[in-house]
Amino acid sequence: MHLADEQPENVCISCGEKWGTHHLKNTESHRIWIDQCDVCLKLRPVADVSEYGFLREGWDGEEVV
Question: What is the Cβ-side half-sphere exposure of residue 9, based on CA atoms within 13 angstroms?
Answer without folding.
Answer: 3
